């Protein structure tokens, strides 16, 4: 018996060696530049050790080539550093790259079925029906909500200034964005902006916790989805999914008599989809609808909060930028009526403010890459054709820091966006093509409203003995580009009322 066991183990070891040898030579045989893969992790040795955005920037600097070969564990993947190839993958030949590589698995329906993770045909179905909610005209319906929360944010800062403890920017801004996005997604009342407490905020605080196990779960979802069902990993913390279902069912009952009204928020749109699916005998499950509200909350609250955090911190260290921003907001607020001023904020009318936001997103894009998977064999250029099923990663953060496209890329310089001459497909904080972020307009409104309120009411200054922006550490356990430590500034009242 032992002889059979030994023979089997030897045969398996030989097979494993030959398979590894074939895998490790994959990109060499195709003449694609690469770094030697790790025998277990492939190219993913940076995970849990440094932020992926820093690794992507390093890969971009190391290889002055349009693409680089990677291994996701033992699976070959391609990292794209070229705007032209990015344009073809994301737009021109998007039909061949409709789907994303990441997946949350069948064991996690709330995580699997949302617009961020789901693939066709469900993605096309949901995207078509949800897109009308995010037009500029429809988003005007949410102006009152965002304005109210921005006013509460100012009250919160005044209250915090009376205390001696530094303000945790990311935590405070997460309270604000949770209220705005969570209320729009689920239709429930939340007062976290003022005091940091609400049921929705408890949920988003869970989102922000990244221990080793949750870090491994997310790494699997993004880079090795085959493990997700095996270990039953979930995109959202398991404690939050039952809450999402409970809240959704309660709001369905509350709004049932008004389903036929014009869609005023995401929840109205979801209820309408549910009603139409019953009439048309379409297979739209409750989990499919709940997952859209869940991803809108998860995908929006921390990304916008982190953007506000980095922006506030950068502007505090550059008073000339802050003064220019303040004067633009002040002049507009004095020149126009309140209704006209709100319309300008909603309609992209404050040029320099938009430049400040765009520069923040250039330096600190929430995700440093865009992932797609090739449905069919695809010719990258005259030298390389990738096979169907190959994951492709567009290195957005690498291009954001390329001095060819953005001179002195480490410098925070909003003026680089003043003239609109940024080369196409070198700046993609929200993605590009059919799968561009559906909540992009809503994110800008959330950011603009907060910035308008803050800089009309306060001057922000750096605190003593705190690091410069370029010295701040980034989160290592998670995958998004967010601060690792508390970032704080001093808020000095301007003796104005927003």
TrEMBL record:
It is a peripheral membrane protein. The keyword Membrane applies. It catalyses: an organic molecule + reduced [NADPH--hemoprotein reductase] + O2 = an alcohol + oxidized [NADPH--hemoprotein reductase] + H2O + H(+). It is found in: Endoplasmic reticulum membrane; Microsome membrane. One of its GO terms (cellular component) is endoplasmic reticulum membrane. One of its GO terms (molecular function) is heme binding. Heme binds at residue 437. Its cofactor is heme. It is an enzyme of class 1 (oxidoreductase). Its main location: endoplasmic reticulum. Belongs to the cytochrome P450 family. This is unspecific monooxygenase. It comes from Galleria mellonella (Greater wax moth).
């Amino acid at each position: 018996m032992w002889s059979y066991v030994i023979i089997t183990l030897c045969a398996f070891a030989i097979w494993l060696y030959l398979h590894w040898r074939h895998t490790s030579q994959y990109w060499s045989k195709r003449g694609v530049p690469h770094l030697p893969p790790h025998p277990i992790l492939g190219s993913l040795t940076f995970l849990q050790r440094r932020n992926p955005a820093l690794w992507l920037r390093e890969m971009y600097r190391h290889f002055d080539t349009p693409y680089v070969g990677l291994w996701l564990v033992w699976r070959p993947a391609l990292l794209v550093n070229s705007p032209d190839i990015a344009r073809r993958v994301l737009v021109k030949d998007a039909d061949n790259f409709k789907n994303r590589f990441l997946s949350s698995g069948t064991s996690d329906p709330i995580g699997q079925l949302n617009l961020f993770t789901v693939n066709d045909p469900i993605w096309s179905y949901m995207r078509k029906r949800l897109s009308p909610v995010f037009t500029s005209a429809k988003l005007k319906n949410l102006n009152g909500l965002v304005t109210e929360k921005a006013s509460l944010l100012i009250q919160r800062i005044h209250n915090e200034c009376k205390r001696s403890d530094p303000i945790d920017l990311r935590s405070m801004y997460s309270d604000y964005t949770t209220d705005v996005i969570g209320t729009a997604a689920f239709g429930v009342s939340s007062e976290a902006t003022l005091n940091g407490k609400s049921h929705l905020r408890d949920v988003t605080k869970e989102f922000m916790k990244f221990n080793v196990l949750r870090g491994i779960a997310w790494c699997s979802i993004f880079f090795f989805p085959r493990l997700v069902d095996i270990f039953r990993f979930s995109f959202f913390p398991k404690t939050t999914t039952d809450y999402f279902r409970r809240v959704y069912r309660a709001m369905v009952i509350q709004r049932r008599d008004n389903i036929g009204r014009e869609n005023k928020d995401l929840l109205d749109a979801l209820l309408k989809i549910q009603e139409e699916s019953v009439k048309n005998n379409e297979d739209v499950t409750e989990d499919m609808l709940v997952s859209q509200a869940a991803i809108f909350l998860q995908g929006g609250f921390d990304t916008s909060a982190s953007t506000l955090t980095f922006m506030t911190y950068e502007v505090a260290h550059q008073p000339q930028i802050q003064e220019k921003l303040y004067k633009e907001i002040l002049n507009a607020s004095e020149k126009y009526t309140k209704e006209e001023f709100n319309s300008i904020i909603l309609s992209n009318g404050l040029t320099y403010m938009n430049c400040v936001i765009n520069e923040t997103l250039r330096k600190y894009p929430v995700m440093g890459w865009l992932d797609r998977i090739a449905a069919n064999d695809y010719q990258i250029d005259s030298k390389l054709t990738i096979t169907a099923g190959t994951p492709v990663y567009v290195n957005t953060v690498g291009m954001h820091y390329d001095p060819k496209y953005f001179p002195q890329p480490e410098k925070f310089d909003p003026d680089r966006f003043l003239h609109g001459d940024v080369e196409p497909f070198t700046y993609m904080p929200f993605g590009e093509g059919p799968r561009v972020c559906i909540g992009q307009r809503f994110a800008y409104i959330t950011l603009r409203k907060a910035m308008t309120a803050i800089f009309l009411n306060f001057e922000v200054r750096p605190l003593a003995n705190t690091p410069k922006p370029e010295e701040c550490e980034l989160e290592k356990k998670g995958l998004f580009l967010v601060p690792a430590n508390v970032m704080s500034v001093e808020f000095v009242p301007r003796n104005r009322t927003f």
